[in-house]
Amino acid sequence: MRNATQIRRARLAAFAPFQAAMPGGPDRRLEISSLGDYRLREPVSGRSYTMLRLQTRGGLEGYGECGEIAPRDLAAVAEAVRGKEATQFETVRHQLKNAPAGLRAALNMAMLDVVGRSAQAPVYQILGGPTRNKCRALAALGGAGDTELVESARRARAAGFRAFLVPAPPPAARNQGQAFVLAARRRLDSLRQAAGEGTDFVLDGRGTLVPGDAASLAAAFERYHLLWLEEPCPPLNLGALKKIAAENVTPLGLGRSIEEPSAFQDLLREEAVDILRPDISRNGISQIRQVAAIAESYYVALAPYHNGGPVASAAALQLAASLPNFFIQQIPFPQAEQDRKMRAALAGDVETVKDGFAVLPSAPGLGIAVNEKALEEYKEHTA
Amino acid sequence: MRRRQFLGGAAAAMAASRVAGEPRRAAPASLCDCAFAPPQPAPPGADAFRGLGSKVKITNLKVFGVSISQTSDRPYVFVKLETNAGLVGWGEATLEGKAGAVMACVNDFREFLIGADPVQSEHHWQSMYVHSFYRAGPVMGSAISGIDQAMWDLRGKILGLPVYKLLGGPNDPAGVRGYYIASGRNLEELRALRANAAGQGITCFKGGIPGYYEWIDTNEKITAAVRSIEMLREGLGPDIDIAVDFHAKTSPSVASVIVKEVEPLNLLWVEEPCPPENVKAMARIARRSTTPIATGERLVAAYGCRELIEQGVVDIIQTDLNHVGGITALWKVAMAAAASGISMAPHGCEGPIGLLASLHLDSAIPNFLIQECCGNIVPQPRDKIWAEWFGFPAMRMVNGKYPLPEKPGLGFDLTEEALNRYPFGGSKPMARVFLQDGSVAEW
């Protein structure tokens, strides 16, 4: 231990004018004072998500979003970050390594929202963007069978989408072979015809296929020019994925359930992936930027997954405009008018898509004004 | 002739099939026969981002060679970006032994920058790197580094935030841990250094190994190297972290033999035990010892570090903010390293701008270990000049840490007048050393 004299001497050694030359530093206005949450559920689809509201000492507010948050976790995280400045979004992300991924993601969005609002700039400017002026958009089609999917594609196309995520037909049993491949092919053929010129498709195996079926599917679509084949097998079945990736040229998209940058790094290291699909609501903006930084050296881009609400959509657009190696952003496209109305009431027209691209917001922070009345109105009341 | 006609036809076909909605392009800039050179887009960049970027535009690019001594191999190369908002951004592109080449390379990027929005540092980084086609070696890496730092400086000033806040830090508001050179030449001097360090809260020093080495070396040379490292531990004591820089003077074979001997000293790291081009050779040294291995000061961009990280070769990466491609590139290296459990100890042995910029980055990455500054525990002439330029003692530790510059941007004000007192004395080569038989040696 050092005594006071030693400390004083050390300070003197470091030139006197020092302190005067460096004012500023901590900004108490940006210190986090409280976190609150609103759990929401869409009336028709039942899709649910939680909006996180962050308030600072200086009266600034920011919003983030994730899946479910346990009250206990929220209280613990609120306690851990109280007094941290919103600008410490990376410090906090690493400090809360053991907190639930979704909560960390939502907190990261909310902190960046505050930083942007405080600096009067969209988040992508804070992060060195814009790197693009619009954001290619992907719609997940809904429906049980081919007919409903075709209808869903028509609606999504009319709403401006040109790229569609299509579920592979559910295999009747394990190791289907020809019948399964033909059913998938029929599905894509009818969708391509219905959606028309200039449309593209992602075929989604939903991580449910046995490696043999997945490989057959990937091989059968090699010359179909899918954007990619999504989660043919579970992403941690690395051996099977490596085999599929080695056997054919259909690009593989993976990682919508991954919450660790190092797991993405392993997929790249093992040459098992062509496009990364981190979920914005599980990883947040900063963690996906880390994943993108890793992927860039492999000439691999990101296509973040998203099946939550409009605040995370806004965060995803900010992210896209900050990344060099970005390809497409999945943006939820609810089938029901009531659900779309709810999303618009919460965050305005941030999910507007035109000619295949989402429009980038230019307002500060995440670029949206979250409507508190709508939050109260749509809040799910738990018993 | 026939091939040429064919390629010409292919170019015409490519031009005809341009994607609908893309901006109309002017005539090709080049009269070469390269079928792959697309016509130059006109005008470049800025208009595509109207309404999304800031309103600030870069109006001028200046590059300064600054020689604080007429003999130094590393006159500083500073980059200054001026804007229509009156704000200026500073960055450092110093490359040892190659000042003239870097200054020319910085100027080659003029067209990329004039009229550009400095907030979009990521976009411009990509354009400089990708559109330079051959990718970057150390000359271009340093040029991009200087420009990138200057753009981060400007972005911070435009948004009113110090760069470490743009990066999401600081992890530690008290500053950034650093080390000085283990300047003692014998046991007595090292013991004095230890006492001095204790008073100043300094926790780490870095030393080297004596002489120059052959591909395989003699018992005498190996023993002298081992003894010199043992002396560092003996003189500095058990509580101070010791890093030893082999400076790539040794072959993998010689390095492995020395590293084996010093394993019991629990060094913080052994640095550059062999040259950087061959990752597998470096890996062979690392595999045969538990002593942590550090390298990376000569590597450019995240691409340059990919294999090291992918193969789990080293424990510590030391990319240099003035060569790797600036803050944009070093942050990416740090992020990839962090995902693999690798620490960052950024190299820094040039001027003060790159070092101050390094502090911002260091304070915001999760895997930061320690920052170099090539300084001495007793302030040197260069420290006096730096203090005179900035009005504060740049890169001097307080209680074992470099304080963070707090003002917006990189956190300092610098005038051209201050630099004018140290005019550029021209490029100077780095040291050229030779073995006793006259053949070329590494240093």
User: Count the strands of chain A?
Assistant: 13
- Poorly predicted parts of chain B: 1-21
Biggest pleated-sheet summary of chain B: 7 strands, parallel
What is the element string of chain A, with H for helices and E for strands? Answer: HHEEEHHHHEHEHEHEHEHEHEHEHEEH
Looking at how many chains there are and whether they match, the oligomeric state comes to heterodimer
What is the share of helical residues of chain A?
Answer: 40-55%
Helix/strand structural class of chain B: alpha/beta
Uncertain spans of chain A: 8-23
Strand content of chain B: 5-15%
Number of helices of chain B: 15
Summary keywords:
heterodimer, A: 383 residues, alpha/beta, three-stranded antiparallel sheet, 15 helices, B: 443 residues, 14 strands, 12% strand, disordered N terminus
Task: Give a written overview of the molecule.
The complex is a heterodimer of chains A (383) and B (443). By secondary structure, chain A is an alpha/beta fold. Chain A is 42% helix and 15% strand. In chain A, helix 8 packs across helix 9 and helix 11 packs across helix 12. In chain B, the strands form four sheets. A seven-stranded parallel β-sheet of chain B has the order 5-6-7-8-9-10-11, with helices on one face. The interface between A and B is large, with 58 and 62 residues.
